[in-house]
């Protein structure tokens, strides 16, 4: 598969598919992170030869972190894609809106307070905007995708 085919596949990929990829990636990352955190917390239980309760707690923690990260990834990508389609622009504002809503909904729900929702949403929005403005690159499909450019992509059908 050459570079032109990869570009075409990326452009044809639907927003739903990108959202599902974000949620799946978040779930996998969250599950791994949950395993690491559970290992830190469950070490004394395993040392006391009580393996089964430690394993059950580890699996619950992995699932909890996986679900949280999946929600964040799915909401972020979905809102970013929706904002991009509505605004018809591809810039840092789309990511900031997605980051704010992802942080505000997930951590606002978990913290059950408006202040935690606003602070988490603000932190996610600021992080997303800063990373995109500084030009941190995203790597997908084996090639470098710069976050946004002002140049139009050349049409592969025109020679």
Strand content: under 5%
State the end-to-end distance.
Answer: 20 Å
Q: Structural class of the helix and strand makeup?
A: mainly alpha
Q: pLDDT average, as an integer?
A: 78
Q: DSSP helix count?
A: 5
Quantity of strands, as a count: 2
For the CA atoms, what is the radius of gyration?
A: 19 Å
Largest sheet: 2 strands, antiparallel
Shape: globular
Spans of at least 5 consecutive residues with low confidence: none
Give, in order, the helices and strands. Answer: HHHHHEE
In helices, the fraction of residues equals: over 70%
Biggest sheet: strands side by side, in what order? 1-2
Describe this structure in words.
- The protein is mostly helical and 159 residues long.
- The protein has helices at 3-12, 15-47, 51-87, 92-111, 114-133, and strands spanning 138-140, 143-145.
- A two-stranded antiparallel sheet has the order 1-2.
- The two termini are 20 Å apart.
How do you describe this structure in short?
The chain has 5 helices and 2 strands, in the order αααααββ. The chain has 159 residues and is mainly alpha-helical. Strand 1 and strand 2 form a beta hairpin.
């Amino acid at each position: 598969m050459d570079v032109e085919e990869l570009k075409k596949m990326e452009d044809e990929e639907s927003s739903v598919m990108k959202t599902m990829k974000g949620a799946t990636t978040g779930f996998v990352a969250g599950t791994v992170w949950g395993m690491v955190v559970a290992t830190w917390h469950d070490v004394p239980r395993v040392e006391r030869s009580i393996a089964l309760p430690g394993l059950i707690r580890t699996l619950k923690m992995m699932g909890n972190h996986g679900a949280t990260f999946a929600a964040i990834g799915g909401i972020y990508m979905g809102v970013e894609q929706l904002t991009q389609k509505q605004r018809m622009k591809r810039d840092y504002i789309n990511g900031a809106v997605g980051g704010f809503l992802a942080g505000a909904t997930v951590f606002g729900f978990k913290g059950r307070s408006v202040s935690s929702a606003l602070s988490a949403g603000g932190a996610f929005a600021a992080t997303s905007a800063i990373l995109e403005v500084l030009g941190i690159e995203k790597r997908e499909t084996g090639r470098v995708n710069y976050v946004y450019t002002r140049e139009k992509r050349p049409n592969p059908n025109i020679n």
